[in-house]
Design goal:
Mean pLDDT: 95
Number of helices: 3
Number of strands: 15
Structural class: alpha+beta
Largest sheet: 6 strands, mixed
Distance between the termini: 26 Å
């Protein structure tokens, strides 16, 4: 999945009010960018970081830049836009690139289910149980090579696990898919010290039949492509 508009490099001045970031472009201009990430962004919002912005000329948007990537000193990238994983994953699913779902012929997004919830993807196919797939964007890494989720307490995430477990109880496939938006990690684990409740809910959901799938991504300023399953 390519970015609709070519990204441009910048330096982060500060992130504030969760969804705003002041940045300095390479020509010295200071601009405010939209940060499409409600999480803590632990380790990804330090002043002075090299980042990549997507400019836009949409008159409906107040901010003319969107923050898409962090570039690390070793040449690796982290995607910080939480809307990107679902778009990239949808393209991969439609192209049959995810082996675990390649047999499914129909894909629907944002389908209502459970108690006032929407599943990210609902897949169906002849002779197959419906597959309810919930996607979480993973950007935290506190140890070299290890990605973790979540980066802050997430009551909403715990609710999604309970909803998935209910689908498994009903005889459907229920999949918790963690999409790692970092190119510097090869392993994954839950950050149980950050949110022990979420970790406990995950264990309970898995015991009831919820599947866990961790998928990596290839990220550059040109775009994001869904990669291979992770260890851990």
């Amino acid at each position: 999945m390519q970015f609709p508009t070519p990204l441009i490099p910048a330096t982060l001045i500060k992130r504030y009010k969760r969804f705003l970031a002041d940045c300095r472009l390479e020509d010295g201009r200071e601009v405010t960018a939209h940060c499409a990430n409600p999480g803590s962004m632990m380790g990804l919002a330090e002043p002075g970081m090299r980042i990549w912005l997507e400019p836009n000329d949409d008159p409906k948007k107040k901010l003319k830049y969107g923050w898409r990537l962090v570039e690390h000193a070793d040449g690796h990238f982290t995607g910080v836009d939480t809307s990107v994983p679902n778009r990239a994953l949808k393209a991969a699913l439609e192209a049959g690139k995810i082996a675990e779902f390649a047999a499914y012929s129909t894909l629907r997004a944002e389908v209502k289910y459970g108690e006032n919830s929407r599943i990210d993807f609902l897949l169906s196919g002849d002779g197959l149980p419906d597959a309810y797939v919930e996607v979480k964007s993973v950007t935290l890494s506190r140890q070299p090579g290890l990605a973790e989720f979540p980066d802050s307490v997430t009551a909403r995430g715990a609710k999604h696990l309970r909803e998935l477990a209910n689908m498994a109880d009903a005889g459907h496939r229920a999949v918790m898919l963690y999409l790692v938006q970092r190119t510097d990690c090869t392993g994954f684990q839950l950050a149980s010290d950050i949110d022990p409740t979420y970790a406990a809910e995950f264990d309970a959901a898995q015991a009831r039949g919820v599947e866990r799938l961790v998928i990596g991504t290839q990220i550059t300023p040109d775009g994001v492509e869904v990669g291979h399953p992770f260890a851990g």
